[in-house]
Write a structure and sequence with these properties.
Elements lengths: L3 H14 L24 E4 L3 E4 L4 E7 L4 E7 L13 E6 L10 E6 L6 E3 L2 E4 L4 E6 L6 E2 L4 E10 L5 E7 L2 E7 L8 E9 L9 E8 L11 E3 L3 E2 L2 E8 L3 E5 L10 E5 L3 E6 L2 E3 L11 E8 L4 E17 L3 E5 L6 H4 L1 E5 L5 E4 L2 E3 L11 E9 L2 E17 L5 E5 L4 E10 L3 E6 L6 E6 L2 E6 L6 E9 L2 E12 L35 E4 L3 E4 L4 E7 L4 E7 L13 E6 L10 E6 L6 E3 L2 E4 L4 E6 L6 E2 L4 E10 L5 E7 L2 E7 L8 E9 L9 E8 L11 E3 L3 E2 L2 E8 L3 E5 L10 E5 L3 E6 L2 E3 L11 E8 L4 E17 L3 E5 L6 H4 L1 E5 L5 E4 L2 E3 L11 E9 L2 E17 L4 E5 L5 E10 L3 E5 L6 E6 L2 E6 L8 E8 L4 E10 L3 H29 L4 E2 L12 E2 L23
Parallel strand pairs: 2-8, 10-18, 19-24, 25-30, 31-37, 39-45, 47-55, 56-61, 62-67, 68-74
Antiparallel strand pairs: 1-3, 3-5, 4-6, 6-7, 9-11, 11-14, 12-13, 12-15, 15-16, 15-17, 18-20, 21-22, 21-23, 23-24, 24-26, 27-28, 27-29, 29-30, 30-32, 32-35, 33-36, 34-35, 36-37, 38-40, 40-42, 41-43, 43-44, 46-48, 48-51, 49-50, 49-52, 52-53, 52-54, 55-57, 58-59, 58-60, 60-61, 61-63, 64-65, 64-66, ...
Helix pairs in contact: 1-4
């Protein structure tokens, strides 16, 4: 018996369609009626495909069975109609872009069954980009600190086939696979923890996205590898130095074989006695001692101690002449020393013969010596004249001279001594007819017209003593004459005179001319001066001098004083003339004996190494072994700029050492300046022109000063530029250490700037004098890049979020232009199916252009091409019921109908057809076609009626029943609502309404997964 619910359903169908309904004919196709897998072969070649997104694909489906009515492919793209009389059908897509496609090959058997086989399709896409970065960090890494690397893989599919491989250089580090299943493109990120050491400085990390798509996939596996990420590792400095080291003079501390390492490269500072030393300053011989080298970077610092010995070639510290008294102990070991390292022994040569110098010297040791010494760095020689001084001694000669009365006589007095002694004659008579003449060490007294006996005293004197010798003159007179007895009174030493004592020379007015009147002679050179007189009434003339004196020359008007090698610093040559009245006028020749310095050197007193700006320092000029001091001018220069001239009032004829000082307070502009001092001898107009000069080697000074910096307050750079491109100018000495900071974090200046590295930076420059900083706001500009998927889905007439989904990352920012084909279009906020299609997005800024291809898929619910329909069929005839709908995604079509052996369904393209062969009354009823996709569901009904007979009776019953139904329907409906059961409703917005389909009131309804009733009774199969 038909239940009330089912009857109500039948009457509603009749009411709506006006067609007869026979109970038991209406069916709903249960979900279990989908094609079943059978055991006979339905073979796919290939059985599984792996396709790159956008590529073509072709798969054959074949069967060995001939007992079928047709076969084909069902697919959202590339589906085929059911083809009869074939054993193979091919599914082909030229441009596969459906990520979720599941092509089904089906075959319709003659019994209406429809076995099928799903083709497994893996649609893959290699990443748009693979990049590697350091999370929450930029700039150098610090040894021993952990950092997290991130690999960003953009827009790839499918995720479950992805393998992320990490490398350091060519060394594999890690492989990562994924269990998450995603057929559509996704962005994937993976991380790797590292703790770099100093050996990793400069290491390059890479990550590789590899798609392992199985044996059907491409071989080798598709891969995209990131650009290498080069890391800089900063670490504490280490140092290794020898504990002791010897260097050669004028070497620098840079020659010390210290090896050190650190990153950033450490600042190296040397100290001696807590005083910083400039490593580029040449080491003087006095700079030996203990040094400390300290190397520092911002990670830490370390030190090492080195004891430095400065070696240098030997140099004599000795005068050119050494005087010592005979038989007295000398101090040559103190006076003549060698300054050299290593120390060396002095060899004494006299001529070419090596000699030993006894502790006490005799006159035989007097002479010129050559001192020779050498060590591993050089050889030195020095010429020394040893002058052995001793008191005067008379040479052998006659003590008594006999002469005839009235005749002339000459008395000779010769003596030696060192220094050469001064001789003087005296006598105890008043005769004034004697004249002196000096020849070498012989002093001769000429006495004219001797008339009486006399005693003459010859006294010789030098600085070491005085002795007197008496020479007796005996006059041979005729007998009638009685000679005067010799006086026995001793002579009294006194100043040099000519006999008699009352006959000393007087200054006269007639000329005694010297040519030249004054001489300037270099030590060791020759000299020659003429002395002349225009007076002819004289007895003779000559020169008196310790060296080069002449004898008493008669009958001349000119005498010449000549010395081949003048070495007497105190010499005062005197030219004299003896008049006939025994007067002896004379003239002293002014002699300046000069010697240029052995060396002139410049140094800094009580300081070595760099100077500091604004601090006072004292330079000293040392002038060694020069004469005479009163003619010295010391001139100071900075470069070619004169600074000071110094003269001396101290009188010293013999060589002396002179030192002069100059105070300076250098500025930064004096860095590298060269100071010189010059010793100049201003010897007057008679001296050499230009003046003899000796100039020191230049003293180059290094001036350390606080750094200064100038930077722009704002600056824009292009991505991957470095901070070294920022036009900051800075200066300092020593060259400052430059450090950049961002948010108090140190940044490596050589690390390329990423687009995220914009912001405020502080540059700090520091040296040992001070530090200064400047702030720069940096903008990082870069070419645009789209952040967008390749496909975007949106429901028709719903607002899209393309402005969020598809964005441009670029600086400066840029506008997106949309192109469809070659035509620029505007994208409205809500899209219709007409907006579906492929678009090209274009944007550009000053650094580049970017394009992106985007397919916009506008989804909409199924819509039937035709409305509800009624078909009248004659018994025994064939009829086909067609159902086609459009929608996006393409809808799935399903017929709900009576389960009869002569009813078969098939699919051709987007049309599903039911074929009724040899129709009977059991085939009459309502056939429902349901179209479903992700957006919605639509239904369409086709009512099948049989011609004649039972139809008219049914119509009569319907009319009667309609009246009753209109009365009782509200009551029945209310009662049914209160009973337990489940019902299916067709949405009210469907174009063709379908009556309520009651289900058995067993308390639990049977539904397929999509909500359609499953087969619980005779009306469903």
């Amino acid at each position: 018996m038909i239940s009330l619910q089912r009857m109500l359903g039948l009457f509603m169908l009749m009411l709506l369609h006006g067609a007869p309904i026979t109970p038991g004919t209406m069916t709903t196709l249960p979900a279990t009626a989908k094609p079943k897998v059978v055991t006979f072969p339905l073979e796919l070649k290939p059985p599984r495909v792996v396709v790159r997104y956008g590529d073509s694909v072709s798969v054959n489906c074949s069967t060995s069975s001939t007992d079928h009515e047709g076969m084909g492919w069902e697919a959202t793209f590339g589906g085929t109609d059911s083809k009869k009389n074939v054993s193979i059908v091919t599914w082909t897509v030229d441009n596969l872009t459906d990520w979720t496609i599941e092509p089904i090959c089906y075959m319709t058997l003659i019994d209406g069954k429809q076995p099928s086989k799903v083709l497994p399709v893996i649609l893959y896409k290699t990443p748009d980009s693979v990049s590697i970065s350091v999370l929450r960090h930029s700039g150098p890494m610090v040894e021993g600190t952990e950092y997290q690397l991130q690999c960003d893989i953009q827009n790839m599919a499918p995720q479950q086939n992805l393998v992320v491989k990490w490398y350091k250089g060519n060394e594999p580090l890690d492989n990562v696979t994924y269990s998450d299943v995603s057929k559509t493109p996704v962005d994937v990120s993976d991380t790797l923890m590292i703790s770099p050491s100093r050996h990793d400085d400069g290491a390059q990390y890479r990550c590789r996205a590899e798609l392992d798509l199985g044996p059907e996939g491409p071989q080798p596996h598709p891969t995209v590898t990131s650009e290498p990420l080069s890391i800089t590792v900063h670490y504490k400095p280490v140092i290794e130095c020898p504990s002791q080291y010897s260097v050669v003079e004028n070497s620098t501390l840079e020659r010390i074989p210290c090896t050190f390492n650190g990153n950033p490269p450490p600042n190296v500072v040397w100290y001696q006695e807590s005083r910083q030393v400039n490593v580029s300053t040449p080491l003087a011989r006095t700079d030996f001692g203990q040094y400390v080298i300290t190397i520092t970077n911002y990670i830490d610092s370390t030190s090492s101690i080195v004891h430095i010995t400065v070696e240098y070639a030997p140099k004599f510290i000795c005068t050119d002449q050494y005087k010592v008294k005979e038989n007295e102990n000398h101090n040559l070991s103190v006076t003549c020393t060698v300054d050299g390292n290593p120390s060396s022994k002095i060899t004494w040569l006299k001529g070419q013969q090596e000699v030993d110098i006894p502790q006490s010297l005799t006159r035989g040791n007097r002479g010129a010596y050559t001192l020779v010494t050498n060590n591993t760095h050089g050889k030195a020689t020095h010429n020394l004249f040893i002058d052995v001084l001793y008191a005067p001694e008379f040479l052998p000669g006659n003590d008594t001279v006999e002469v005839s009365a009235g005749s002339d006589v000459s008395l000779d007095c010769s003596a030696e001594g060192n220094p050469p002694p001064e001789l003087r004659w005296t006598n105890n008579t008043a005769e004034g007819n004697a004249n002196e003449a000096t020849v070498g060490r012989l002093r001769t007294l000429y006495i004219s017209r001797v008339t009486a006996n006399a005693t003459y005293n010859c006294t010789v004197t030098n600085g070491l003593g005085s002795i007197t010798k008496q020479i007796h003159v005996l006059v041979d007179v005729p007998p009638q004459q009685h000679p005067t007895m010799f006086s026995t009174a001793p002579s009294t030493p006194g100043t040099m005179t000519t006999l008699p004592a009352t006959a000393k020379p007087k200054v006269v007015t007639f000329p005694l001319e010297l040519k030249p009147p004054r001489v300037v002679v270099r030590y060791g050179d020759s000299v020659s001066v003429n002395c002349s007189t225009s007076y002819t009434d004289h007895e003779g003339m000559g020169w008196e001098a310790t060296i080069g004196g002449t004898g008493f020359e008669q009958d001349v008007n000119i005498v010449t004083w000549t010395v081949d090698n003048l070495t007497d610093w105190t010499i005062e040559p005197k030219c004299y003339v003896t008049l006939i009245d025994n007067e002896q006028p004379s003239k002293v020749l002014p002699v300046i004996l000069y010697k240029t310095p052995d060396s002139v050197s410049i140094s800094v007193l009580r300081h070595s190494g760099p100077m500091v700006e604004g601090t006072e320092y004292q330079l000293q000029c040392d002038i060694q072994n020069m004469a005479p001091q009163q003619n010295l001018v010391v001139k100071w220069y900075k470069g070619n700029e004169p600074l000071d001239n110094v003269t001396y009032s101290d009188v010293s004829k013999t060589p002396v050492d002179v030192s002069d000082t100059l105070m300076i307070s250098p500025s930064r502009h004096d860095d590298g300046a060269q100071y010189r001092c010059r010793a100049e001898l201003d010897l007057g107009p008679e001296g050499p022109q230009p003046h003899p000069t000796v100039t020191s080697e230049p003293l180059s000074i290094t001036v350390h000063y606080k750094p200064v910096i100038e930077c722009p307050s704002q600056y824009s750079v292009v991505e991957n530029s470095t901070l070294e491109r920022i036009p900051c100018t800075f200066n300092g000495n020593p060259p400052p250490n430059v450090v950049w900071y961002q948010e108090s974090r140190q940044v490596n200046v050589s690390t390329p700037l990423a687009r995220t590295d914009f912001g405020q930076y502080v540059i700090t420059i520091t040296n040992d004098i001070g530090s200064t900083s400047s702030t720069v706001h940096i903008t990082v500009e870069y070419a645009p890049k789209f952040k967008c998927t390749n496909q975007y889905e949106v429901k028709e007439n719903e607002n899209h979020n393309l402005s969020v989904t598809c964005t441009v990352d670029g600086n400066p920012s840029s506008k997106i232009t949309w192109l469809k084909g070659q035509q620029e279009v505007d994208i409205h906020q809500s899209l219709t199916r007409g907006n579906r299609g492929a678009y090209t997005l274009v944007t550009n800024n000053t650094h580049g252009k970017a394009t992106h291809n985007l397919f916009i898929d506008v989804l909409y619910a199924p819509e039937f091409l035709l409305g509800n329909d009624t078909v009248e069929v004659s018994a025994g005839s064939d009829v086909s019921l067609n159902c086609s709908a459009e929608g996006n995604p393409p809808p799935e079509l399903r017929w709900t109908n009576n389960d009869a052996h002569n009813v078969k369904s098939s699919t051709e393209g987007r049309q599903r057809t039911i074929r009724i062969t040899k129709a009977t009354s059991t085939n009459a009823g309502i056939y429902i076609c349901t179209a479903t996709n992700r957006v919605g569901t639509a239904t369409r009904t086709t009512t099948v009626t049989m011609k004649g007979g039972f139809t008219s009776i049914i119509l009569t019953i319907v009319f009667v029943f309609l009246v009753i139904l209109l009365i009782v329907f509200p009551i029945v409906f209310f009662m049914c609502k209160k009973r337990q059961g489940f019902y299916d409703f067709i949405p009210v917005n469907q174009p063709n309404g379908v009556p309520l389909m009651p289900l058995p009131t067993t308390g639990v309804g049977n539904h397929d997964p999509e909500g359609y009733p499953m087969k619980p009774g005779p009306f469903q199969n």
